[in-house]
Amino acid sequence: MTTLEITFSLTPPEIDDIVCKLSTKIPEISDYTYHHRVRLIKPKLSYDTSAIALSFEPAAGESPPEGRSPEADAYTYHHLRRDLYDMSRSTGVEVASRYVVPSAHLTIARFVTKADTSVEHDHDQPDPVKVRKLLGQIEKINSELYHRYWPKEGSSISEGGQWIVGQEKGLDCRKGILWYGGGETVRLGKGF
C-alpha cells in the first residue's frame, strides 16, 4: 500500500537527488507509524477503468482490538498521509503524486487490455454482459468481505479484518520503479 508517493516518471539521477534531499527525514518518516498507529478496517473491493483494488476505511472507534481504546482511532489514515506529506515538504522536496485521492488500497488486478469487458471485435465497445458478470463477482466478494470481516455491534472484528499500519514492520521508504513490487528499499521503518 502506498502511503505517500513523492513523484513518478523521473530518471534515476533525479530520483537519487530527491532521496538525498529527503535523507535527513527518512528515518523519522519510515518510523512514524511506531508512535502514530492508524487502524484500517472494512475491506472492500473497489474498481475503476484501470484496476481492481482491495480498499479499506479508517477506523472510527468500531470494535477496537484488545489493548486499544476507541479514542486511539482519532488519529486516522488521512492524518498520517498529511503528516508524511508535511515532513517530506519540510525538506524542500516538491510532492508531485500521480494520484491525490487519499485512498487506503492495495491494487490486486490491473486491466491491461479491454478484451475481458468489451465486445469480441471492437475493444472500444463495452460488452454489457461481460461487465455485469465482472461486477457481479465483485459484489459477491464484497458481500463475503462484509459478512466475514466488517465490525458488528458488540463483537470483535474477525482476524484479518483490520490492519494497524506499522504492525510487524514500519513504513518502507522505496525508490525506483515501484509498481508490482519493483524498486528498492531505502529504509524500512521500525515495526511493533
List the helices and strands and how they pair.
Elements: H1 12-22, H2 26-30, H3 32-35, E1 38-47, E2 51-58, H4 77-89, E3 104-110, E4 118-119, E5 122-126, H5 128-149, E6 162-165, E7 172-175, E8 184-188
Antiparallel strand pairs: 1-2, 1-6, 2-3, 4-5, 7-8
Describe the structure.
- The structure is a single chain.
- The longest helix has 22 residues, at 128-149.
- This protein is an alpha+beta fold.
- It is flat and about 55 Å long.
- The chain contains 5 helices and 8 strands, in the order H-H-H-E-E-H-E-E-E-H-E-E-E.
- The protein has a 4-stranded antiparallel sheet.
- Strand 7 and strand 8 (184-188) form a beta hairpin.
Can you tag this structure with a few keywords?
5 helices; flat; 192 residues; alpha+beta
